[in-house]
Write a structure and sequence with these properties.
This protein is 66% helix and 0% strand. By secondary structure, it is mostly helical.
Length: 430
């Protein structure tokens, strides 16, 4: 697969959440949901009482385990603001983003401290490709509630997407250290540390949450990722199996299962089923749609692949890799101008992207004689230019048996034939 996406990049930056939601995010958060540990929270933002009651012994710091794990509830919004907020959530669930934005802005007017409305406005801005506004909304939410994990995740997600991993660590680390009872923040910190390759520290952060709730799935997810990054695949599989037993309805667990199965010989069908299950559980799971779309494209199911890439592009329009894969799908379905537009958009987002030049090269080669506004010879010449740019940008990463070299040899012959034909045609009309 070309253009693989870091695991954290697409997580949660496109999810809507409600007040007091402990555990996994939801695509339709109109009702409070249980925690990812499988227990219903006793109050908004609280850790399950079963976990708090696990140990009342005095700790070396003079506080009981229950006291260490107790998290203060986040402040509620006014009733008038909540009504407008819920209208926004319902509109967003039907992709009526204009109405959703109006409703969230209305909630803010009724309650300037309605931090979930700020967060959801950030999500809408991010989906519209406006990362600056998204960051601003997320940061405003954090100024109201400093340990509001969805907003911290939104900020760090954009930073990692921009390959600013150290900035993401700097965003989450002080919050995780200050708000140790926020288990979601500990799990997020662990994931960010995995991206920064600080794997031993990632384990410590995840364990911090698991000490309060050994069934806390987000922390288990972080440990799966840390273990895989360390090459400890058997341990990762064991933790993943445990997490699935705790809560089999967490979309990310199925995505991780799909990744594991995809790497095993003869398990591609099962991997695709896992990706599909992740999407069923979280329709706005862009990374799962990308993974499934790539396999569908490779298997020749071009229309289905295209639909998943289009959905991913609507969710994360600023990620170059999505546009490369979207271009591949448009090319496979012979939608030539759309394919060119997707590859060009990828290059606008990331100027040096050899995969986009490779796709353009294949596009002009495949569509020669059929591409609007280009004759056969012009298309071949454009294909040569793009493939040479691809090889130059790949540099030492280029494989010895890279297919582009063969394409270039074929193009050289086709260009010579096209020129001879043109010369004969011109000679016959003179």
């Amino acid at each position: 697969m070309r253009g693989a996406i870091p695991t954290l990049v697409l997580i949660a930056a496109m999810m809507f959440v409600t007040y007091g939601c402990s555990g996994k995010s939801a695509s339709e958060p109109t009702e409070p949901e249980s925690s990812s540990g499988g227990e219903a929270p006793t109050e908004a933002g609280a850790v399950p009482s079963e976990a708090l009651a696990s140990s009342e012994a005095e700790s070396p710091w003079g506080a009981t385990r229950a006291e260490q794990c107790r998290r203060e509830a986040h402040p509620p919004m006014s009733a008038k603001a909540r009504r407008a907020f819920n209208q926004g959530v319902r509109a967003a669930a039907t992709n009526d983003n204009a109405t959703a934005e109006t409703s969230f802005q209305s909630a803010l007017k009724k309650d300037p401290n309605a931090y979930p409305a700020l967060y959801n406005l950030g999500v809408l801005a991010d989906r519209a490709g406006n990362e600056r506004d998204a960051m601003n909304y997320y940061q405003r939410a954090l100024r109201i509630v400093p340990d509001y994990e969805p907003a911290a995740r939104g900020v760090s997600t954009i930073q990692i997407r921009r390959k600013q991993v150290q900035d993401a660590v700097a965003t989450v680390e002080p919050l995780a250290n200050e708000y140790r009872a926020n288990l979601e923040m500990q799990a997020l910190y662990a994931e960010v540390l995995v991206e920064a390759r600080r794997l031993d520290e990632a384990w410590m952060a995840a364990r911090r949450a698991l000490k309060c709730d050994e069934r806390f799935v987000p922390a288990l997810v972080a440990l799966v990722k840390a273990s895989r990054s360390q090459g400890r695949d058997e341990l990762a599989d064991s933790i993943l199996e445990q997490a699935m037993q705790v809560d089999p309805d967490v979309a990310e667990l199925h995505f991780l299962q799909g990744e594991r199965l995809e790497a095993e010989p003869g398990q591609l069908r099962e991997a695709m089923a896992a990706y599909q299950r992740a999407i069923q559980l979280r329709p706005n799971y862009a990374e799962a749609r990308m993974a499934l779309g790539i396999q569908l494209l490779a298997g020749g199911n071009y229309p289905a692949a295209l639909s998943h890439f289009q959905a991913a592009e609507r969710l994360v329009p600023t990620l170059p890799e999505i546009h490369v894969n979207l271009g591949d799908a448009y090319r496979a379905t012979k939608q030539w101008p759309e394919a060119q537009g997707a590859y060009r958009r990828a290059l606008e987002l990331q100027s040096k992207l050899p995969e986009a030049h490779y796709g353009l090269g294949l596009l002009f080669l495949t569509a020669a004689g059929d591409f609007p506004g280009l004759d056969e010879l012009a298309a071949y010449e454009k294909a040569v230019k793009e493939l040479k740019t691809y090889r130059a940008e790949m540099g030492p990463r280029l494989a010895k048996d890279d297919q582009a070299e063969e394409y270039l040899r074929d193009l050289d012959r086709m260009i010579k034939r096209a020129r001879r034909r043109i010369e004969r045609e011109q000679g016959g009309t003179s």
